[in-house]
Amino acid sequence: MSRPTPPPLPPIGPRSFDSDVPNASRMYDYYLGGAMNFTADRELAERAKSVLACTPSLARLNRSFLRRAVNACLDEGIDQFLDLGSGIPTVGNVHEIVQRRNPDARVMYVDYDATAVMHAKKLLDGNENAAILHADIRDPDSVLSAPEVLGLLDFDRPMGLLMVGILLYVGDEYNPKGLVATYRDACAPGSLVPISVITLEHVSKYDPVTHKQMLDLISVYDDASEQINVFGETEFTTWFDGMRLLEPGVTVLPDWRPDGALESDNDSPAGLLGIGGLGKIVRGPVAEAPDA
């Protein structure tokens, strides 16, 4: 059963730099082996690893899903991308994946964290087909009307609308399903929408130890800039209303079009925690069965 939808709170808005508060984006960077993090981030990330040792595996599995989903978009002829909650630039950035295959493809990143924006601007200097917007994705009107976005992307043509690993930081008070719908409705039919979140459903059934550890991890993130939210698979699937789910539908991340990468992570307890899917915007009231 889906949870009741409360009235959404006002968006927080872009955040300024603060190295003293553990930052979820910088912690993610740390799990992935990046260097754009600070003592407070590393200390809380180590606490997270102490309660759920496979936390870095979960981060890598999500990053791998992003890579495979972006390549799936490219295979479908998509040549422009809006990456919501893109985070700190790290190995396998979207514009690198995209422009390696299509140098003329365009990528607009959006993040509200000042550290992510600062480093992305340095990385993208001189790249006319990629940019970053300092904005809160929970304020879709500001994102979708930003001159930087409208100047780079053409909303009359299909695009890749990426919401990978970001909505797990968006609680019910911000109506994540409503956010997906608002961004979906701004995009042309034929656009592709990869989304991933965390669920407890599979570990609660098959791995009670990891289930307890995941609950402890959620508590650790009470001390971070953003808290972790988990979602049921049925509820998550409704976020694809107005889209056709492409094969293999909503699955745990290792089972979404596997390509043989990250085999050790695929077999870790983290493999039961992340779920994702890729929807194709077709307009309509419900998500359809996955394409064969």
UniProtKB/TrEMBL annotation:
<protein>
    <recommendedName>
        <fullName>S-adenosyl methyltransferase</fullName>
    </recommendedName>
</protein>
<feature type="region of interest" description="Disordered">
    <location>
        <begin position="1"/>
        <end position="20"/>
    </location>
</feature>
<dbReference type="Pfam" id="PF04672">
    <property type="entry name" value="Methyltransf_19"/>
</dbReference>
<dbReference type="InterPro" id="IPR029063">
    <property type="entry name" value="SAM-dependent_MTases_sf"/>
</dbReference>
<dbReference type="InterPro" id="IPR006764">
    <property type="entry name" value="SAM_dep_MeTrfase_SAV2177_type"/>
</dbReference>
<feature type="compositionally biased region" description="Pro residues">
    <location>
        <begin position="1"/>
        <end position="13"/>
    </location>
</feature>
